[in-house]
Design brief:
- The chain is an all-alpha fold.
- The chain has one domain.
- The protein is 63% helix and 0% strand.
- It contains five helices and no strands.
- The chain is elongated, with a radius of gyration of 27 Å.
């Protein structure tokens, strides 16, 4: 099975090169993101291993702070509250 696996892998890489390689993959990422992400999941390692000299670091600086989330939530609640119209049953009349 080892030789067949290597042969198939080489054929897939060759076919990818024939259709444009990295440019083709970038186009597929834009056109078919869910399918592309399934491919990404298949080729990423299952486990990341760091060592004492080079530990793995994850940068979450893009993530909003709790205060930013709270402020955004409050802004949405206020905007929705401005659009709400309260109606009492007495105002509706007989239907």
């Amino acid at each position: 099975m080892g030789k067949q696996h290597a042969l198939i892998r080489d054929m897939v890489i060759g076919a990818l090169e024939d259709v444009g390689g990295q440019d083709y993959l970038a186009e597929q990422a834009r056109l078919n993101p869910s399918t592309f992400l399934m491919l990404v999941a298949k080729v990423l390692p299952l486990q990341l291993i760091g060592d004492d000299e080079k530990p793995i670091a994850i940068d979450f600086s893009w993530s909003p702070t709790q205060q930013q989330v709270t402020d955004a939530t409050n802004a949405v609640v206020e905007a929705v509250a401005e659009k709400v119209v309260e109606v009492a049953w007495e105002d509706i009349g007989d239907c």
